Amino acid sequence: MTPDVPRRQFMALAATTTTGLAAAGLPAGTAHAAEPAGPERADRPLALWYREPAADWLSALPLGNGRLGAMVFGATETERLQLNADTLWAGGPHSYDNHKGLAALPRIRQLVFDGKWPEAETLINSDFLGVPGGQAQYQTVGSLLLSLPTAGTVTGYRRELDLDSAVATTTYTRDGVTFTREAFASAPDRVIVVRLSASKKGALSFGATFESPLHTSLSSPDPLTAALDGTGDATGGVAGAVGFRALVRVLAEGGTTTSAGGTVTVRGADAATVLVAIGTTYVNWENANGDAAGQAAGHLNPAASRPYGQLRSRHVEDHRALFRRTSLDVGSSDAAALPTDERVSRFGSGGDPQLVELHFQYGRYLLIAASRPGTQPATLQGIWNDLTSPPWGSKYTININTEMNYWPAAPANLLECWEPVFALLDELAVAGRSTARTQYGADGWVTHHNTDAWRGTAPVDGAFWGMWPMGGAWMSMAIWEHYRYTRDTGKLRARYPVLKGAAQFFLDALVTDPATGALVTCPSVSPENAHHGGGGGSLCAGPTMDMQLLRDLFGAVASSADALGTDAAFRDQVLAARGRLAPMKVGARGQLQEWQQDWDAGAPEQQHRHVSHLYGLHPSNQISRTRTPELFTAARTTLVQRGDAGTGWSLAWKVNFWARLQEGDRSYKLLADLLTPERTAPNLFDLHPPFQIDGNFGACAGVTEWLLQSQHDELHLLPALPSQLPDGSVRGLLARGGFEVDISWRGGALGEARLTARAGGPARLRTAKEVRVTSGDAPVPTTRPEPGVTAFTANAGATYLVRPA
Asked: Is the pLDDT of residue 32 over 90?
């Protein structure tokens, strides 16, 4: 990750997300009798569950509907739901462009080519870095607090998050009365819902109010409702422009309900439904003058007209329509009956294969909860952040982390959750066109290693980290990847101008390397890593990752033009430029070089968390066992030299790397390294540390890579199946070419696979052993173009059964 703060502050920042027992509403001395583990856990295998309330934020349970997020603590004295709205950001609309940049660019480039790295860095920091030099941060709304009776000892306590229903439940008994709370974030009704009930009539009493670290005020707009009004912070000299209103309305059954001074009080009720709605003034990246109060009321009032049962059923139906598309079964054991945090502590010792399934499905759950059509994309923390100044601003870091957030979207069958990325790209293309002209004198559009709610596209955070012009190239590859999975020419046609604009920029901005004659980026960096050339630093020309990204970008534009039957002249331009890019090279240590020069051996961080130059191995397909064996071996050598250690998200990328190397056991080891208390929080959030959600998504995608890879117009079945998971099945994975795939395996070998052709066309299957293909019990004519490959023509809508011959 790009440090907006020095590394020595990492752990301090991590500590700020852990607010202790007080945050969970647990005064010292509170007694809780632990619920015994037992076979009853088997009835909900896809649930996180715990014997105690959350002691800190990293133990609380996440809910989300794309727009709103909540972390549920499950306390018995003061329940806390920490709240987020996806459009509550510091600052306001503005341009980051540096108007001194274009004049400084020729000198910067010359300094880089001359190897005068410190001088180049100084000039970039003074004349090329964005204004301001840091971007805005994503901010918390605050918390909803429910004050509950405190007398008596709590027994039979349990809290859980059921991934299949996306409902968090807390139950406990106090003085002979069993209290139950259900909470969920409803996408169809656009509110957060909490249902409180008691086993004894008239036993439910509580208060509901808000607190916030931002500048806010409380009020009671009506007898059932409390309101929190506030504004996001200023940042970098830009005034806070996003106003917000949070409303809580309590609909009690029996008893009395009153509201005064921003607190709703319920006395003697049988049950109550608590609804939370949040509106902001954020309209889009150029406009923060919306109606927060009107938006909040417009969501709250319709929801309040529905009975709780209807709210819950609408929510569950909406969630399951996405969640139940894909299932995974890799076996279970007695360990599955343990609380989730205990399972993470024990996973490294083996014997808990079901935790792999739970973690995989948790990644899918989080993507559904954090990213829906019409919402902002998932940030570094998804939609969950309890701070006003979180680590790295909880922004969009687009030199790996935002892209990793969406790696599961296609293979794990959640294409709709990808939609916010395409909306983001539309906006970045507009903002980035200004940056391209202002700072590079180039056509097209550019963005660097970070962006935010205001769609900053200039380099930020300092030249060492920020002088990387490839963010648009990587992000826009989502357009082509979506087409590869769906064959949807309508969406490709609509999005092609954004993809083309990303390529247009580089046709203008690439320069000729005077030493080699190749086209290269300059200035650039290999994300966040330093080299030892000259005076050191990170600046360079044409790092390997840049060249890989441009080969993909130019190839995607050319292939898109072919698919759409358009833009032949531009297609020829990008292919000509692609042919002049600096090639990948193997260094003296047998490694894939990270830079054009063989600087790897002297790089100051031999085990750096970024392994950017292996982009060509994953997520790209430029390096493969069958097509580029020398580079394939060099990529493996690089991973061995870098070692298995890493931050949470880095381990997740390595899970994918080793899967692409078809070494399932090594890939599984990396997942086991991730599933430890040092890298996975009690609530299964990925830890850098601190919390970053990309590791959750990256690991989820890595599991799909064990089971199905679709590169070079082939579907490779079980390419990296770990020996630790010898028996199992998966349903509903998506593959490039427009296929949906189910697979079962026994004893580490393919049992059968079922392919549904959504688009139709050529199908090539790579398998360990020869297979036969049938459709409707009839054999399908196949060919064997090479050993291990079976080819046939698939008809759109048809299903094919693949079994060992």
From this structure: no
Asked if 135 and 460 touch (Cβ cutoff 8 Å), the reply is yes
Distance in angstroms (rounded) separating the CA atoms of residues 479 and 425: 9
186 and 60 share one domain:
yes
Backbone angles phi, psi at 61, to 5 degrees: -110, 130
Residue 292: its H or E element:
helix 292-304
Q: Is the pLDDT of residue 519 over 90?
A: yes
**Do residues 788 and 768 touch, judged by C-beta distance below 8 A?**
yes
Enter the DSSP assignment of 438. Answer: I
Residue that is written with structure tokens 């082509």 in the block: 480
User: Cβ distance 453 to 423 under 8 Å?
Assistant: no
Q: How far apart are CA 618 and CA 612, in angstroms?
A: 10
Q: Is the pLDDT of residue 5 over 60?
A: no
- Give the strand pairing for 263-269 and 204-211: antiparallel
Residues 401 and 382: their CA atoms lie apart, in Å, by 11
Average pLDDT, the chain: 93
R_g (Cα) of the chain, nearest Å: 27
Nearest alpha-carbon partner for 764 in 742, 787, 745: 787
Q: Which of 123, 319, 142, 146 is nearest to 214 (CA)?
A: 142
Q: Across-strand partners of 526?
A: none
Per-residue pLDDT tens over the stretch 750-793: 999 999 999 999 999 999 999 999 999 999 999 999 999 999 99
Q: How many domains does the chain have?
A: 3
Q: What is the pLDDT of residue 6?
A: 29
Of 196, 300, 302, which Cα lies nearest the Cα of 249?
A: 300
| Average pLDDT of the residues in 699-723 | 98
- Residue entry with tokens 């590859």: 477
pLDDT band at 363 (very low <50, low <70, confident <90, very high): very high
Residue with tokens 């809508």, as numbered in its chain: 797
Contacts of 438 (CB under 8 A, 6+ apart): 97, 98, 99, 101, 102
pLDDT, one tens digit per residue, over 176-196 is 999 999 999 999 999 999 999
270: Cβ–Cβ under 8 A, 6 or more apart, which residues?
197, 198, 201, 202, 203, 204, 253, 254, 255
Neighbours of 294 (CB within 10 A): 11
- What whole-number distance in Å separates Cα of residue 218 and Cα of residue 354? 46
Look up tokens 């260094």; give the residue: 587
Instruction: Among 290, 310, 329, identify where a domain stops.
Output: 329
C-alpha span between 414 and 359 (Å, rounded): 16
Asked if residue 545 lies in contact with residue 470, where contact means CB atoms within 8 angstroms, the answer is: yes
DSSP alpha helix (H) spans, 487-626:
489-509, 544-564, 568-579
Same domain? For 241 and 268 the reply is yes
- The one-letter code for the residue type at 64 is G
The whole model's pTM is what? Answer: 0.94
* Cβ-count burial 711-737 (b if 16+ within 10 Å, e if not): beebbbbbbbbbebbeebbbbbbbbbb
Do 281 and 421 sit in the same domain of this protein? no
* Beta-sheet strand order (sheet of 749-757): 327-329, 728-735, 739-746, 749-757, 799-804, 771-775, 778-779
Indicate the pLDDT class of residue 39, thresholds 50, 70 and 90: very low
Buried/exposed 110-122: b ≥16 CB within 10 Å, e otherwise: ebbbeebbebbbe
Last residue of a domain, one of 286, 303, 329: 329
Q: Supply the CATH number for residue 750's domain.
A: 2.60.40.1180
| Residues 439 and 510 grouped into a single domain | yes
Q: Which residue has 């018995």 as its token pair? A: 76
124 lies in the same domain as 193: no
Residues 433 and 578 in one domain: yes
Q: How high is the pLDDT of residue 8?
A: 27
Nearest Cα residue to 58 out of 678, 574, 752, 665 = 678
Among all chains, which residue has been given the structure tokens 């709610």?
Answer: 453
Where residue 676 falls (left for φ over 0; alpha for ψ -120 to 50; beta otherwise) is beta
Residue corresponding to tokens 């009004």: 229
Domain residues for the domain of 110 are 97-130+395-586
